[in-house]
Amino acid sequence: MQVKSKKKYAQEFKDQVVALLDLGKSPGEVAQDMEISKDLVYFWRRKAAQLPQRGSEGAGAVGDQAVTDELRELRGRLADLQLENDILKKAAVILGTKPQSKSGR
After folding, report:
1. 2-30: per-residue pLDDT in tens?
2. What confidence tens digit (pLDDT) does each residue in 28-43 have?
3. Which are the contacts of 36, defined by CB distance < 8 A and separation ≥ 6?
């Protein structure tokens, strides 16, 4: 059985694909012209749209670099803690124990 290796594309190539989409070409046309899958075109477009919103390294970052980096880190930590909390609540239901109330009683 032959293992299919993942092809890596240069960032410049990805930027060209996104630029073609910005010029009004359809994702199908771009995929066919660049000889890549349509899924890659959609993925790269979505990723390029999100980049300016990510911390101090994006073009859309406003304010002090340290503050934006800290905010990004804290938001990630908050998401992790909320996920952990949800898992613990589900485990408590499965094990038949009652989750503690917010007042701690």
Report:
1. 666 678 888 889 989 988 888 888 999 98
2. 998 998 899 999 999 9
3. 9, 17
> For residue 45, what are its two tokens?
């477009």
Question: Locate tokens 């477009």: which residue?
Answer: 45
Residue 71 lies in a domain: yes
Same domain, 45 and 67: no
- Structurally, the chain folds into a number of domains equal to 2
Quick check: is 104 in a domain?
A: no
Q: Is residue 102 part of a domain?
A: no
Q: Look at the alpha carbons of 19, 23, 26, 31 in this order and tell me if their dihedral is positive or negative.
A: negative
Residue 101 within any structural domain of the chain: no
Nearest to 36 by CA among 1, 8, 64: 8
Read off the pTM.
0.45
How far, in Å, CA of 103 to CA of 89, rounded?
Answer: 16
> Does 15 share its domain with 48?
yes
Distance (Å, rounded) from C-alpha 45 to C-alpha 54? 15
